[in-house]
Amino acid sequence: MGAILTTAIKELLLLARDRAGLLVLFLMPATLVVVITLVQENILQLSGQRPTEMCVRDEDQGPFARGMASYLQKGHIEATAWNASVDELRQAVTAGTCQAALIIAPGTSTRLQEEIDRQLAGGEAAPSTAISATELDLLFDPATMVGFRAGILARVQMAAQATELEMKAACLSKLLTAQAGATAALPADDAAGRSLREMFARPLTTVTERSGRASHATMAEVLNPVDRNVPAWALFGMFFTAIPIAGTILTERQSGIALRLTAMPVSPIQLLAGKMLAYLGVCMVQFLLIALIGMYLFPRLGLAAFSLPANPLTLLTPVCASSLAACGFGVWLGSFCRSYEQASTLGATIVVAAAAMGGIMVPVYAMPPMMQQLSIVSPLNWAITCFSDLLVRGYPWVATLADQGRLLAFSAAMLMLSWKRAYRWGM
Q: Is residue 254 part of a domain?
C-alpha cells in the first residue's frame, strides 16, 4: 500500500508541472460544456430533428384514432401500435425504449363528436374544462433533446387538427344536405351561424407533452438539458486523462526510470495501480469543476442550473467507475504505444470516436440503426447512461449497477492487458 501511495504522489507532482496537460484536462472540457450548452439552448429550440418512430396506444378505436393514424403517416411519422398497458408504455418511454409515445384515451371520438353536434345544433360550446377528454398525451423520454420533441409535437398537432377538421366538415356536410331545401341561408348573426364560426375557430383537441416517468408531469417540469450536458462533457474530459497517463509511462520507459522501478521489490501491477489512483483523483476533480460550472455559472448565462439528485452521494460511484475506466484506458494506451506522439494521436482519436459513438456528441436515438447497435460497445455510452438514469430519468441508484459493473470490468480488463506488457521495453 505504501508503494501505491508513493507512486500516486509522484504522479500528482509530475502532473502539477505539466501546464499543458492541466489545460487539456480542465480548460478544454470546461470550455466545451459552456459553448455546446449555449449553442443547444439557442439552436435546438428553433430547429427540429426529423422523427423516426413513435409508439401509439389507441384506446379509442374510433374515427378520430383512424384519422390520426392516416395523418401521422402523411407527416412522416412511423407510428407503431402499442398493445400492452399504458403503464408499460410509460415505463418503456422512461427507459428510452420508445423516445415518444401517443396515448389516445377511450371515448375520444365519441366525446369529440358530441361536442361538434352540440355546436352545430346551435347550443353553447362546452367550456374548455369540459372537453378535456379530447386531450392527447404525448409522452417523451426525459433524455430526448428539444429539437426531437419539437419535430414530433408539431406533426402530432397538425394531425390532430386535420382529423378534427375532417370530422367537423363531415358533420357540416350532413347539416347542409338536410337544409338543402331551405329558401334562405342562416343570417350571419343567427345563433347557429355563430356556433359554426366558433366551432371552426376554436380547436377541440389539445396535445400535451408529458414525461414518461410521471403521468402528471409535463416535459417543461422535467427536462433540463444541462443535466445531460454537464456529465457528458465531464466524461469527455475525463477520458482524455488517458493521454497524460500514457505520457508518464512512456517517459519512464524512455528515460530508464521504468527499469529502476521494476528492480525494486514492487510488482508492475502495483505501479500501474498507483498511477490509476492518482488520476482517479484528477478525474473526480474534473467532474466537480464541470458540476460547479453548471450549478453557478450557467444561471448567470441565462441557462438552467445543473441539478443534483436528492442524495448527491449517489453520483459518487458512477463518477468513480467512469474515472477508473478512463484511467484503465490510459494505462493500456501507455503500455502498448511506443512513443508519446503515437499515444497522443491514437488516444485522442479513440476518445473522440468513442464519445461520438457513445452518445456524448449526438444522442444515440438520432443515429442510424447500425450506429445505435455499435454504441453499446463504447464505455462512454455506459457512463452517460448511468448519469442520464440518475439525473434525467429519475431512476434509483440500484438501476445503474449494470452499467457501473461494465465500467469496472472494462477498467480491470485494461489493467490486466497492460500488466504483462508494462515496462516491457525497460526490462
A: yes
Q: Give pLDDT, residue 40.
A: 53
Tell which residue, 392, 217, 239, 379, has the closest CA to residue 315.
392
Distance between CA atoms of residues 280 and 278, nearest Å: 5
State the Cα torsion 87-93-97-101 to the nearest 10°. Answer: 100
Query: Strand 135-140 and strand 206-211: pairing?
Result: parallel
Judging by beta carbons within 10 Å of its beta carbon (0-12, 13-18, 19+), is residue 203 exposed, middle or buried? middle
User: Could you tell me the three cell numbers for 176?
Assistant: 347542409
Q: 3-state DSSP call for residue 423?
A: coil
Divide the 427 residues of the chain into consecutive groups of 10 and give the mean pLDDT of each group: 81 76 71 61 46 80 88 82 87 84 88 80 52 72 76 85 84 72 49 56 72 54 74 92 89 74 70 86 93 92 85 92 95 86 83 86 76 87 92 87 95 86 51
Among 190, 222, 254, residue at a domain's last position: 222
Residues 197 and 57 in one domain: yes
Say which residue the cell 375557430 belongs to: 201
Counted domains in the chain:
2
Domain that holds residue 188: 53-222
Torsion of CA 376, 381, 383, 386, to 10 degrees: -80
Q: What is the pLDDT of residue 284?
A: 93
For residue 242, give the nearest of 336, 315, 351 by alpha carbon: 351
Predicted local distance difference test score (pLDDT) of residue 23: 66
For residue 217, the model assigns a pLDDT of: 53
| Amino acid type, 11 | E
Are 272 and 419 within 8 A, CB to CB?
Answer: yes
Q: Are residues 306 and 330 in the same domain?
A: yes
Angle at 150 between CA 51 and CA 232, to 5 degrees: 80
Residue type, 19: R
6, part of any domain: yes
pLDDT at position 187: 45
